[in-house]
Write a sequence for this structure.
């Protein structure tokens, strides 16, 4: 045996031929060329040795007793273990038709008998190399696709993390906005509340002594009147000085008018008490739990605070308030917060009426009623409608009016907080609902619905 050729291992080949001469011939040739060879004489043996230890190439005779070459090839191609191994068919020169069939069943090449040795070696070596390249390529491919899959998974993971972070960030931003909104508003309202309750407190003292002194004044007046009467009865002929003075001051009119003047002063004091009461109701600080509240009182106290904005320079320009109050029981709520909502909506309505130069009969209608839910088991709710006949809201911004910081008013006039806070108060704090209907040139209506929780 040639030492040089035996040292080089070039590949592992299974040779299948029922003809012992052919088998020997090919085996010797290939062994000499450095291949490791397994010669077998039947199709069955070929299949078992191939599957037990897959070679790099199979040389397969076509005509064999029992299983022929095509059958063997088909069997090998159907099994993933052996499907890729190149099969070179051995055929006789005159078997041209069978060569076509040999490609059909999955052969890669054929060699013809009698053998041309060099041709056999070239074909064998070419197909083994091709097979190895193909395997390498598959390995590289699978490695690369594995790496790609891993990278993709990593990217997906990074992406998921980013998305998660983004969501967290959005939640945090929303929370911050809410907190900021609450801070700004509660600051605004607490300043206003302090101011208002301060004023209510301050005017209560002078009101107290006005009220007290008025009572005394009336009493003194009556006594003076009685005393004067006595004089007039006793002194039938008063001096000219007294008569002149009585004429000068028109004493009869004075005596008649004095009680009316007191009645008017009393009404004034009464009105001041009402105002002070409204201021106190408006500026009440909410406790942590809901309390029973008369929403009409809330609306009235808000209107009192806004009175100066309803009266215009000309009587005809006044904003008329039309009320249609239903018979509403006390409801459980945070009164200070509800008053804020009434305030925000009423101020917006007044702003819209002031901005409307075409509207001559400026009006705000306020209606309250109890409404049944469509599903009887849900009970009833209170509906408050505040409707103005001002400018109306253009369709393209109607969706945005409840948005945080959305305003169409000039800097210094509006901050865009009023409605977003009102929505938060009604929907989040009270589980109710607030909506708006508007038409440009006709006006705007806000509808607040609050679940009726009857007072306990
Ligand atoms: N009754 C209304 N008529 C016409 N437009 C209105 C009315 N109410 C609200 N709007 C519109 O909705 C916007 C948002 O109102 P919102 O009360 O939230 O903010 P604002 O009044 O502009 O400012 P802020 O209330 O914070 O002082 C207003 O700028 C205005 O364009
Ligand atoms: Mg506003």
């Amino acid at each position: 045996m040639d030492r040089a050729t035996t040292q080089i291992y070039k590949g592992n080949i299974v040779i299948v031929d029922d003809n012992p001469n052919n088998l020997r011939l090919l085996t010797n040739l290939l062994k000499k060329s450095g291949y490791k060879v397994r010669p077998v004489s039947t199709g069955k043996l070929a299949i078992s040795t191939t599957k037990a230890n897959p070679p790099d190439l199979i040389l397969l005779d076509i005509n064999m007793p029992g299983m022929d070459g095509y059958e063997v090839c088909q069997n090998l191609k159907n099994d993933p273990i052996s499907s890729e191994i190149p099969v070179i068919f051995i055929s006789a020169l005159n078997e041209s038709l069978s060569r076509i069939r040999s490609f059909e069943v999955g052969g890669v090449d054929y060699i013809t008998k009698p053998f041309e040795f060099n041709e056999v070696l070239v074909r064998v070596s070419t197909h083994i190399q091709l097979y190895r390249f193909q395997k390498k390529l598959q390995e590289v491919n699978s490695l690369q696709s594995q790496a790609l899959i891993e990278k993709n998974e990593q990217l997906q993971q990074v992406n998921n993390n980013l998305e998660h972070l983004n969501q967290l960030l959005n939640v945090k931003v929303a929370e911050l906005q809410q907190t900021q909104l609450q801070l700004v508003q509660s600051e605004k309202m607490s300043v206003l509340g302090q101011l208002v309750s301060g004023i209510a407190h301050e005017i209560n003292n002078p009101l107290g002594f006005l009220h007290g002194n008025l009572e005394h004044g009336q009493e003194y007046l009556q006594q003076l009147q009685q005393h004067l009467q006595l004089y007039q009865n006793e002194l039938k002929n008063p001096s000219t000085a007294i008569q002149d003075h009585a004429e000068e001051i028109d004493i009869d009119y004075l005596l008649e008018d004095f009680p009316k003047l007191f009645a008017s002063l009393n009404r004034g004091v009464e009105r001041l008490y009402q105002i002070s009461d409204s201021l106190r109701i408006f500026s009440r600080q909410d406790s942590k739990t809901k309390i029973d509240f008369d929403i009409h009182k809330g609306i009235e106290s808000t209107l009192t605070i806004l009175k100066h904005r309803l009266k215009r320079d000309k009587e005809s320009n006044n904003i008329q308030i039309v009320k249609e109050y239903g018979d509403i029981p006390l409801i459980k709520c945070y009164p200070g917060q509800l008053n804020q909502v009434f305030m925000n909506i009423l101020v917006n309505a007044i702003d819209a009426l002031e901005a409307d130069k075409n509207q001559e009969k400026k009006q705000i209608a306020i209606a309250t009623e109890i409404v049944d839910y469509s599903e009887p088991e849900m009970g009833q709710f209170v509906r408050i409608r505040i409707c103005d006949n001002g400018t109306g809201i253009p369709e393209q911004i109607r969706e945005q009016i409840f948005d945080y910081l959305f305003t169409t008013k000039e800097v210094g006039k509006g901050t865009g907080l009023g409605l977003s806070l009102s929505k938060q108060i009604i929907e989040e704090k009270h589980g109710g609902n607030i909506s708006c209907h508007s038409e440009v040139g006709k006006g705007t209506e806000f509808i607040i619905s609050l679940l009726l929780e009857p007072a306990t």
Remarks:
- The longest helix spans residues 117-234.
- The pocket of adenosine-5'-triphosphate (ligand 1) is lined by residues 344, 348-349, 352, 388, 390-391, 393, 401, 406-409, 414-420, 444 (CB under 6 Å).
- Residues 3-115 form a domain with the Rossmann fold fold (CATH 3.40.50.2300).
- Residues 1-6 have pLDDT under 50 and may be disordered.
